[in-house]
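Homework help board

Subject: predicted structure for assignment chain

Our instructor gave us this sequence and asked us to write out the predicted structure in token form, then describe one feature. I got the tokens but I'm not sure how to describe them. Can anyone check?
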Amino acid sequence: MESVEKILAGDIRTAAKLIRDIDDGIPSSREVLKALYPHTGRAYVIGVSGFPGVGKSTLADQMIRAYREAGKSLGVLAVDPTSPFSGGAILGDRIRMQGHGTDPGVFIRSLATRGHFGGLTRSTHSVIDVLDAMGKDIILVETVGVGQDEVDIVTTAHTTIIVLIPGMGDDIQAIKAGILEVADIFVINKADREGLEKTMNELQVMLDMNAQGSTGGKWRPPIVATEAIRNRGVPELLSNIETHKALTCGST
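My token output:
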């Protein structure tokens, strides 16, 4: 109960220890999770998915900055490949977000896939509950980036963002039966690269073929062009997230 009270009060050290125990499968962590569960359900979960190299971490970094400027507290889960030496996360994504490492309003945690397919880890849902119980307003979940079968995020996030880059060409066709069908919002990052209009047109065709979308036809996933490294297009992305939230959750 002491751990539960500390986590509900936002104690980072206690939460970090519990997350480690959850990830390691320590049996005692289940009892703490049960006690925390009635205090969950308040945070808004945003998933960021897509192929490796499309700039997911840079985009997430800019989203964190924008939400903090708006006074929101954040929990960030970066799902990384598993280190072959330690069995833990390689930490590449978390390193790219270290500009927020000293911000008390941002709690960043890396999780290793440990052989789990689907882009997340077995413990992701439980860790989200911990961050939710801590009182985080927004929880960003960046998936590992494994490609077509990375669809677990759609059952985890309230809003799922799929990040692409210009010039993917046949890659869009190849993954249309996978992650493209779970997107609530498409982001074409690195929009200064050649092939932006072609990629946008290909996505529009894909959307026309899947007109019902994830909300039974009420929501057509928008396409947002960004240059995350220059913070261009990020305000438009957050505006679309709020619009999707209002449609699916009934509030902004």
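Reply (TA_rk): Your tokens look well-formed. For the description, you could write something like this. Residues 82-94, 115-119 have pLDDT under 50 and may be disordered. That's the kind of observation they're looking for.
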